Amino acid sequence: MENNVDSPKKEDRGVNKVSKIPVKIIKAPSPAKPKWLKVKAPTGHKVEELKNVLRRSKLNTVCEQAACPNLGDCFNRGTATFMILGNFCTRRCPFCDVAHGRPAPIDKDEPKRLAELAANMALKYLVITSVDRDDLKDGGAGHFSDCVRQIRNAVDDIKIEILVPDFRGRMEKALNALSSDLPNVFNHNMETVKSLYRQIRPGADYEWSLQLIKSFKNIAPEVPTKSGIMLGFTETKDEIKQTLYDLVAADCDMVTIGQYLQPSPHHLPVSKFVHPEEFREYEEFAFGLGFKSVASGPLVRSSYHADEQSSSF
Asked: What single DSSP character describes residue 140?
């Protein structure tokens, strides 16, 4: 069996990852990071304990792979977002620190190991995400379903949120696979506004992502739907509000709005650090549109305190 958790080589990240995207990155100095974006370094007994457990279980977390600024907070809470289907992505999104490369074959034992870890940790809420797997006929949706099924068989009363890629070109097969073992929350991130898609999400499509959310809601109306966007590129207030409106029109129930942070000097630069007051403005606007749950703030991420956000359902 091939091990999908081998560390990606350095050349799979940074400048070599983003060098072939259609819109070239123009390097520019980012504004000084404001005080409200300071976070504690990811240290502590629980952080090291969980990292060791993950290594022994041969499992990945997006917390580590995407260099999430909330890693220390979440790990010290004993929670994590697990990243399945390996740690090599078939896309080259210039905002993301996950490595690009040719993925290994699906690790068919991964759902079992994830279920065993969830049981051993007595988890009550679990988020599962993945890299993009454009090499698979269903985009990896069947593997998501296997994970959901085996976790539910191993842990009573656990809630499972899946944060899925766009399954572009494979929506019908993906939704058929996901419908066999429904999650408690279905999450797919829009990431940014429509005008920036070609630059920020090469290989993705704004309307396709909206349709994925709406189509899942059509087949599972009882399951809350969720999405997230990042701020701090060159988007305008009107574009942000339009994206929120489009999500509501696509039957999205929950939304997260956070600040983009540049993973390395080779990634897209930050154009603006959005003030917490502006995040509160978007929160009020989103609730006014009809979202049932909104998390909006500089350090908010799509799965940050996901258990709390879903508590209203």
From this structure: T
Reduced to 3 states (helix: H, G, I; strand: E, B; else coil), residue 294 is: strand
Per-residue pLDDT tens over the stretch 128-162: 999 999 999 999 999 999 999 999 999 999 999 99
Give me the mean pLDDT over the 17-44 stretch: 73
If you ran DSSP here, which 8-state letter would residue 205 be given? -
Residue 8 gets which letter from DSSP? P
Residues sharing a CB contact under 8 Å with residue 49, sequence separation 6 or more, in sequence order: none
3 state DSSP class of 148 = helix
Contact 185, 310 (CB under 8 A): yes
CA gap 226, 113 in Å, rounded = 26
Count of beta carbons in the 10 Å neighbourhood of residue 190: 25
Q: How far is the first Cα of the chain from the last one, in angstroms, to the nearest whole number?
A: 40
CA distances from 65 to 87, 164, 233, 235, 242 (A): 7, 16, 22, 26, 31
**Would you call 179 helix, strand, or coil by DSSP?**
coil
CB-CB contact of 163 with 190 (8 Å): no
Closest CA to 81 of 312, 240, 305, 311: 305
